[in-house]
Specification:
This protein has 25 helices and 23 strands. By secondary structure, it is an alpha/beta fold. The protein has an 8-stranded mixed β-sheet with strand order 14-13-12-11-10-9-22-23, with no helix packed on it. The chain has a 7-stranded mixed β-sheet with strand order 15-16-17-18-19-20-21. The protein has a 5-stranded mixed β-barrel with strand order 1-3-4-6-5. This is Competence protein ComEC.
Length: 767
């Protein structure tokens, strides 16, 4: 924590204390609120500063380091790789700037011998926490910050203890905990290898979701029931309730204890202990820690017999969670957990007695509807079928599946044959539930995936709060008014003749979205490989949804290289594509992308300049697209154009190279951007799709652009790049600069041109 910030915090705290003494009890609330704001800001700032000091700097990308480390998580062994968390104990060799303590390590190929508690000398290739930065995309650095990870690395070599490595002083407790979880996972796999949904069983018992298949996860996600597969407040609370009820049944037999402890206190303590054991099985993840704190706060308020204990318990739990883990407020689970409890309390206000099954069902339906605005805001996905799905799934999971599986897991730990019937019974119920969720998720009209502005989500949440108040009869009207913005098209208003361009940050690949007033075009779909990673699914599709794109009028795959076309399947699976132009058509509904293709959308002209008809399938045969606005601004997207293709383009279309914006070929090397191009037709600005290490553009090309006074902007540095063009070319800042976060390093300088620059001939640009 910065000394100045610490001093300011102490001064303000002293002032608050003096104010409380001076003005008495009536001033307690405002002063307490002021103190809370200061403490909250101080804790968050301190957490961020400490994390930034230890996080891997961008300059360490690709560097190798040798450390003494211990595996402190349950390893994920999936096919060709293994992934696990390590705690660094000592640095044996590496850069002086390396100060990370917690790393997420991936090993290729898989290392099944690595388990929780494995300790040894590891040689690692480092990768900073920063990841692709796109609208609506996954914030990799934010996730690392929340999880307390300082970066990631690739395992190059592992020398376990016993080969000259000093013995471990005191193994981290997390390693022992995850070793027990790994042992139980192995017992479950051996005891019932023929289960239909083993991944779901492990997710509910030990919080290990790596075995869940993609169809299983999509079924829960699209029906709004995915919260059931992450051990959190609901699961921990249910276990606490079950254990508390069982402890109440044996209360009468504990006569000595009855004299000094009330039954309610005994049940509360027993329930909390049972919940702690279950949280330990889940690895004491942040959601389970949050749930335990909430549970402890509620039970404390209940035992103190304070009036309105529920609301006070909720507020006490929120304060405790934020103080214990300030980064919790960045996780959707924090808001879903506390939001759900608050909605339930609102629904129960004014009711006497215990709610029956009918009331419990209505509460579940209203809860699902109340969470819809939050779901749209966080995940850009709202399931209108969620009330029905949750009405079935919540009691099935909580009252049937979870108790049966936990009993089965406990018996399996003692003797496998004892627990097998319980595991099979729970798996059978899960199979029926997954079948129902698959049926519901296949109804597209009931699952809405769209970008929702924060203002609309807040308005929807406010309407829900109003509607839940029994004395406010106009609540339904508020809900209708709040829902109206959700039905409006969430995309920029583009004037006729103009085009908006977004070059996405997809790493070592390329993908660009071009939008006119009424049409959407995707130029390349990012990298991907069959059966593996797909930037189309993980980056391009979320970005398209964030931009309000519900349909692609055309997709152009400029090159057959996986960096351009690898993500196309992921895009097609999620967003309708009317027409596809491809360098080498692979499907019946695809057409060849070659010279002669031209069209006009909303007064914006598009034309394919390369390759000529009959060109072979060489690496230089990339589609080149020229775009011209009604105002005369010209854009050129070169795909994966190589040196030979560039020469053919210069010969066949000598005037076609002129552009205001030039999107450089992906992987532009020494043969790209010849001296003739930059001398005869220098662009006003150049964009390059690179990764965080600058791969995708060679240094020689950067030097040529600098010598020709052409400003260069890279996705690997600035994140997704955006511009608007009609009569003028308006280039905005990169996504990282537009969306600064507390956990990000110092901001990059603003994107500027090279005014006053004089072209300097070099050995490669001299004419």
């Amino acid at each position: 924590m910065a000394p100045g910030l610490l001093l300011a915090l102490l001064v303000v705290t002293a002032g608050v204390s003096a104010g409380l003494r001076r003005y008495g009890y009536r001033a307690t609330v405002p002063w307490a609120m002021a103190l809370g704001v200061v403490v909250a800001w101080g804790s968050v700032s301190m957490t961020a500063n400490i994390w930034l000091e230890e996080a891997l700097a961008p300059s360490l990308a690709g560097e190798e380091v040798t450390v003494l480390a211990t595996v402190t998580s349950l390893p994920e062994h999936a096919g060709h790789r293994s992934r696990f968390r390590v705690t660094v104990e000592a640095v044996i060799a590496g850069p002086e700037a390396f100060a990370a303590r917690e790393l997420l390590v991936t090993a290729y190929p898989a290392r099944p011998e690595v388990e929780a508690g494995t300790r040894g000398q590891m040689t690692l290739r480092l990768r900073p926490a920063e990841g692709p930065a796109n609208p609506g995309g996954f914030d990799r650095a934010g996730w690392f910050y929340r999880e307390g990870l300082h970066g990631s690395a690739t395992l190059l070599d592992l020398e376990s203890t016993g080969n000259g490595v000093p013995a471990a002083p005191a193994r981290p407790w997390r390693a022992d905990l995850h070793r027990v979880r790994g042992w139980l996972r192995g017992r479950l796999e051996v005891a019932a290898p023929e289960l239909r949904h083993p991944g779901l069983v492990q997710a509910l018992v030990i919080g290990d979701r790596q075995g869940m298949t993609a169809p299983e996860w999509q079924a829960f996600l699209r029906t709004g029931t995915n919260h059931l597969m992450a051990i959190s407040g609901l699961h921990v609370g249910l276990v606490a309730g079950f254990v508390g009820l069982l402890s109440g049944l044996v209360w009468s037999g504990l006569l000595p204890l009855q004299r000094g402890l009330r039954k309610a206190a005994f049940m509360a303590l027993a329930g909390l202990a049972g919940a702690a054991v279950y949280a330990a099985l889940a690895g004491f993840s942040i959601p389970t820690q949050r749930a335990l704190i909430m549970l402890a706060a509620f039970m404390a308020a209940l035992l103190w017999r304070r009036e309105a204990f529920a609301w006070r318990g909720l507020m006490l739990a929120a304060i405790a969670v934020v103080l214990w883990q300030p980064t919790s407020v960045l996780a959707p689970g924090f808001w879903f957990s506390f939001g759900a409890v608050a909605v339930i309390l609102l629904l129960l206000q004014g009711r006497s007695g215990r709610p029956g099954w009918r009331e419990a069902g209505s509460i579940q339906v209203m809860l699902a509807l109340a969470m819809l605005p939050l779901s749209l805001a966080w995940f850009q996905l709202g399931s209108w079928v969620a009330p029905v799905a949750n009405l079935v799934a919540v009691p099935v999971i909580s009252l049937l599946v979870l108790p049966v599986l936990l009993v089965g897991a406990g018996l399996v730990a003692l003797w496998a044959p004892l627990g097998q019937p319980f595991l099979h019974a729970g798996d059978g119920v899960l199979a029926l539930l997954v079948g129902l969720l698959d049926l519901l998720s296949g109804l597209p009209v009931l699952v809405d995936e769209r970008r929702v502005p924060l203002a609309a989500s807040l308005l929807g949440g406010l309407a829900v709060l109003v509607a839940l108040q029994p004395r406010l009869r106009l609540g339904a009207l508020w809900v209708v008014l709040a829902g109206m913005p959700l039905a409006l098209p969430m995309r920029p208003d583009i004037e006729p003749g103009a085009v908006h361009v977004l070059l996405m940050d997809v790493g070592n690949g390329q993908s660009a979205l071009l939008q006119t007033r009424n049409h959407n075009l995707l130029f390349d779909a990012g990298p991907g490989r069959a059966g593996g990673y797909s930037a189309g699914e993980q980056i391009v599709v979320p970005t398209l949804r964030a931009e309000g794109v519900r349909r692609l009028d055309r997709m152009i795959l400029s090159h057959e290289h996986a960096a351009h076309a690898g993500g196309s399947a992921g895009v097609r699976d999620s967003i309708p594509v009317v027409e596809t132009l491809r360098r080498v058509p692979a499907e019946a509904d695809e057409r060849a992308c070659e010279v002669g293709e031209r069209w006009e959308w909303d007064a914006v002209r598009f034309e394919v300049l390369h390759p000529p008809p009959g060109w072979d399938g060489s690496a230089s045969a990339s589609c080149v697209l020229a775009v011209e606005t009604a105002g005369g601004v010209r854009l050129l997207l070169t795909g994966g154009l190589g040196g030979l293709g560039e020469a053919v383009l210069m010969r066949d279309v000598p005037d076609g190279r002129a552009s205001d914006l030039l999107v450089l070929p992906r992987g532009a090397g020494t043969g790209s951007l010849s001296r003739g191009w930059l001398v005869d037709a220098p662009p006003r600005i150049a964009w390059a799709s690179t990764d965080g290490r600058g791969r995708g553009l060679e240094a020689a090309v950067r030097e040529r652009l600098k010598a020709a006074c052409v400003p260069l902007q890279e996705t690997g540095l600035h994140g997704a790049l955006r511009l608007e063009a009609n009569s003028e070319l308006e280039v905005g800042p990169g996504h990282r600069a537009r969306h600064r976060r507390l956990w990000q390093p110092a901001p990059l300088p603003p994107l500027r041109g090279q005014e006053g620059c004089t072209p300097t001939p070099t050995d490669e640009t001299r004419w």
